[in-house]
Amino acid sequence: MKSNPMGHRHFQKGVSLVVVLILMSAIFLMAAFGARLTLLGEKSSRNDRDRQIAFQAAEAALGDAEIDLMGPNAATNSRVCSTASKKVSLFTEGCGNTDANRGFCTNSTSQPLYKAIDFEETGSSRRYVTLGEYTGGRETGFATDNSALPAQKPKYIIEVIAYPRPRSTNETAFLITSLGYGLNKKTQVMLQAVVYKPDVPGC
After folding, report:
1. Which of 38, 103, 162, 172 has CB atoms 3.0–4.6 Å from 129's, for a disulfide?
2. How far apart are CA 203 and CA 191, in angstroms?
3. Closest among 68, 54, 96 to 182, alpha carbons compared
4. What is the pTM of this model?
């Protein structure tokens, strides 16, 4: 019985076509997977950069709040001489909202105060302080009209807390809570610091 060489060749071509299609599919899947990994890596890098910007903005607000409390502060609306460990009359329950005591807070509840403050509120009734508001234009570098800068200026509140010391009465300290934004308004970082301030000489 004679074999059919033409049929054998057709069979080989058919098998080769299947192998080529399988290899092309594998290469396509690998390329798609690699592209997806690249996109995910880029997104992760953007998110990390956004968070770093928000973190640095929150740190800037912490520093600004310390200058608001401690000085040196030559701003015309400086409040350095209005506050000290034993001078807390400007601090009001739930945070003040006037030019004199905006962002100065006391808290008689068990709930953390930052949860009760609306940091998105605008206008004269807001109860937080924006960067540079009481420190003479220290907001330079945080203008929000540049796409490479935070979506909003960082903000802070200052809360009176108990600060017991040996052989001393009525001592308090100040808990600063700052909020920084990234390029995306939804990227936010909150930081806190405790500052003790004795009476300021010359005030």
Report:
1. 103
2. 29
3. 54
4. 0.77
